[in-house]
Amino acid sequence: MHSISKPHSRPKSTPIAIISPGPQVSIEDTAVPKPSFGQVLIKVEYCGSNPKDWKVFSLFPDVPPSNQCNDVAGFVEQVGEGVTEFRRGDRVAALTLFAVGGGYAEYAVAPALTTFFLPETTTFRGWCFFFPASIEFTMLGYVYCMAFSP
Question: Which of these, 15, 138, 12, 135, lies nearest to 71 by C-alpha position?
């Protein structure tokens, strides 16, 4: 599934969305993140937006304004040390797990362990909708079972 890609220059800075209580959104310019050991840098094509991205401030008032998005899909831009399964240009989806920043950005860092190849038959948009929805339904089922089990 590896693709061949041509070298190009990546911008040094990129806009990101910062979510604050309200919710309020501001766009800030920040340095393009660099992947650390075991991480990949993804050029984001689509990202998922979940209720937790803006409701986190109601549940945890001490959370500072931040880029809350965890679900991204795009192309591998760079790999960190120790990453052998991905290469630049690979078509992937990932959970950022707040590795560095978040997914409301042009570039996002994710652990290689939560990154996977995205089949050509799955759109970036489709994955970013389906995956968060499936997690939420799974959690609702879990909570229901815990609440109503004998």
Answer: 135
Q: Which domain holds residue 100?
A: 13-148
For 68-112, write each residue's pLDDT tens digit: 888 899 999 999 999 999 999 999 998 887 656 788 899 999 999
- 37: Cβ contacts below 8 Å, ≥ 6 apart: 80, 81, 82
Q: Which tokens sit at 24? A: 């309020």
Instruction: Output the domain CATH number for residue 74.
Output: 3.90.180.10
DSSP for 67-98, please give it.
----EEEEEEEEE-TT--S--TT-EEEEE-TT
pTM of the prediction? 0.78
